[in-house]
Amino acid sequence: MMGRNDNVSSPVTETVIDARNSSLLDKMEDLPLDICIYLPDHRGIQFSVAGGRHVNAEQLGNLVFDELSLEKSSAEEALTLWMCSPLLSIQLKAHHVPFQIRRLWMRFLRRYSHGLDEEMTSDEPLLILQRNVLLTVQRQREKYCIEILTAQLQERHESLLEILYLHAKESILNGYCLCPLDLCLRLASLQMAVEWRSFSSQHTGITLRESLADFLPAHVLTSVRSWSLFGWTIPFFKGSEDRLLSMYKAVAEWSKFRLYNAYVDLCMKLPSYGAAVFAAELEMRSRWRMHYRLSVCVSISRCWISVWEATCNKSHLFTVALRRCQFWLLDDDLDQFDDNFPALLLMFGEKQKDNGQKLLVTLFSKQAPLMEALLNSFCTEQQFAADAQVAIDCESGLSFQNRLSQISAVRFYNCEELSAKIPAYLKSRLERKLNIHRDSSNESL
């Protein structure tokens, strides 16, 4: 999940090296290979590549940039190749060889995915060109998403901006970028203008109702769609179709560049925009029974960590600014963990006050090493300070309320209290990480 030009070892690189050491990749023939690279909307571009079994992600990326007439320097900064499937998504570094990653896919799934054996056997990853997770929001806004660009610059960047738009749209519709209802409607109206173009008499509430699933994520459909019986809308159960049509009509004549720009600009206000999304489990409190494990999605961007339920309603649990959070990976003594999952510990303040109550939240996931690698890459980037300022500017305008009271977490004010409250199966490992002892002073963390 690390960057294209990052030479630091990562879990993906280590898996490939392990395979080389076990001779799994020794017999790779140097023959032409047909490779299909997909755009975020699953349109494919087919190449026949000489020696394709040895071609790395950077070389394949350059082929796509040439095919799409993208400016190389801008495209290399903003876009990168990902190997994606329903079970696992991996951003490739420049030196990664996609054929090797594909050949080792089952090994990656067994190590990092939560899929069942039959799901892993039938899993088919795609090689997709999409947004680079290391691209800063500030940099993207300054270089690619400014309406005052000259006509020449708009023409040069429109194809690149279209890919950023397509990736943002897929993230919204798939529920990987949580979005408040009002903003969902604004984004849907822009997408309608891109795909339907000019408003006409054919665009009515009835036709829109039949197409809502194409423009809105599944978990908000019931809040937008009107209820009807025998073709008649039921009074007091009228949805937002007419409002959405009005919003679409207002932007229907905009240029494509302006529509792409407006869509991406709205998405950049969301904590999960441009983030990598992982699967995990989180312990929740229960009034009627013992604490239970809940399947969650974890999005990690340059500024934010967001967690929400992996159920159909995508209910938001909490979002915390990366600059306010400390993290540790616990992947030793896995027999002490339920389901033998590694754990990623997150420590942050319940409120913005530095001297207030703190929480220690445990995310159980086979993908915890990938999360830690991505977090480490963000924290060592020189642009972190600039993006942290963006996070500060956006923090007061967050649309989601944290539901921390429903999460089973260690709540504490100082080291001594943490040492007393932390579960036994975490205590020894966390003490080694934090050097916390029973005789610690009351110094605040």
Overall description:
The protein has 445 residues and is of the alpha+beta class. It has 3 domains: 32-132, Phosphatidylinositol 3-kinase Catalytic Subunit, Chain A, domain 1 (Ubiquitin-like (UB roll)); 151-268, Acyl-CoA Binding Protein; 276-443, PH-domain like, CATH 2.30.29.30. The protein has helices at 11-21, 57-67, 72-78, 98-103, 105-112, 117-122, 137-143, 151-173, 181-196, 205-211, 221-224, 241-251, 256-267, 368-379, 384-395, 415-421, 424-434, and strands spanning 33-38, 44-49, 79-84, 89-91, 126-131, 228-229, 232-233, 276-284, 292-300, 304-309, 316-321, 325-330, 343-349, 358-364, 410-412. The strands form 3 sheets. Strands 8, 9, 10, 11, 12, 13, 14 and 15 form an 8-stranded antiparallel beta sheet that branches. A 5-stranded mixed beta sheet has the order 2-1-5-3-4. The chain has a two-stranded antiparallel ribbon with strand order 6-7. A hairpin with a 7-residue loop joins strand 8 and strand 9.
